[in-house]
Amino acid sequence: MSKQRFGILIRPSANRVYAESSVALMEAELEVLDRAVLGGRITDVESRPIGGVPYLTFSAEDLSERDVAFLSNLSSLYALFRLAEDGDALHPVGLHPLDRLDDDLLTIQKYAGKTNEYFTKLLLNVALWSSASGPHMADRTLRVLDPMCGRGTTLNQAMMYGYNADGVDIDGKDFEAYAGFLRTWMKRKRIKHTAEIVPVRRDRRLVGRRLDVTYGLSKKEYKSGDRRRLTVVNADTLRAADLFAADSFDVIVTDAPYGVQHGARNREALTRSPLELLARALPGWVRLLRPGGVVGISWNTCVTSREDALAALAEAGLEPFDEGPYRRFRHRVDQAITRDVIVARRP
Ligand SMILES: C[S@@+](CC[C@H](N)C(=O)[O-])C[C@H]1O[C@@H](n2cnc3c(N)ncnc32)[C@H](O)[C@@H]1O
Predict the structure, then answer these.
(1) From the CA of 171, how far away is ligand 1's center (Å)?
(2) Is 237:256 a contact under the CB 8 Å cutoff?
(3) pLDDT in tens, 217-266
(4) Most exposed: 29, 31, 87, 215, by fewest CB within 10 Å?
(5) CATH architecture of the region 4-93
(6) Distance between Cα 166 and ligand 1 center (Å)
(7) What pLDDT band is residue 304 in, cutting at 50, 70 and 90?
(8) How many CB atoms lie within 10 A of CB 318?
């Protein structure tokens, strides 16, 4: 079969998030998807304007339904077109994103220190596709951990995908704000659920508190007993290995503290070097991953180098992905933050 040419229209808001890096990040995300899940069938990736608007174009033999389903989840994809052989006519390709819930779950909360929701989706996608569970993105209920989850952007994206999600954060205000938000949102959306906050004890000592939520993606699923779980523990992530069962997560994804203060809030935790925290926390996180599971971390390269971050992952027994597209996620966020992504797999 002859090759066809396709064009991805990038979500307009991606330019606000990534400035001039949006096309390069989209290209790297597409290449990870292609290598890991689509079988390397995408070629001649090129960014070019069509009608004065930037598109990411590529060649592929006709895309299957499965291919389109995966492409539909690219974090900055707005629309997908097949390009006419001659000229610039665009034929829309129907999208089938995995989204199981309303997308205001990700956009309503606004606070200093929030990780942008599109970047969070990119990080989760890249980790997921690089894991043994990547090909099953749409046909299994996967389990995701964010061990420094803040007010839950990663957890919300995992819920959007219909997955079970768990989080840990040391900040009590974040814990309360997220628990309050989630309860209100579920009530307003009439999502059948139960939610409770319970104390967490180890050796009879109180180590934190846990939000336990059980819900149905639809009323029908809830009734039939097909339910999803979300838990958030307000505790130090250094305790993560005591909080969850070993070998139980498909991916662990986190946006590490930036080593700079967000807004006016004085977070004691941020005075620690993110590298030291990562090095100490990683052995516990690794125990929670399934074999073939992946850790994906974003962090600020202005305070910790890529080499040091890679060394910490390798030291914890993980195999980092560090070539091709995996080296092209670095981008500027603001004057004090240049963010990068690293991904490593548990053998
Ligand atoms: C960059 S923020 C993550 C923001 C989150 N992705 C969101 O969108 O809300 C880093 C988080 O790490 C948390 N943190 C720092 N040290 C921690 C520790 N030792 N244990 C658990 N969480 C920690 C902070 O409280 C903060 O919420």
Answers:
(1) 7
(2) no
(3) 999 999 999 999 999 999 999 999 999 999 999 999 999 998 876 543 44
(4) 87
(5) 2-Layer Sandwich (3.30)
(6) 14
(7) very high
(8) 23
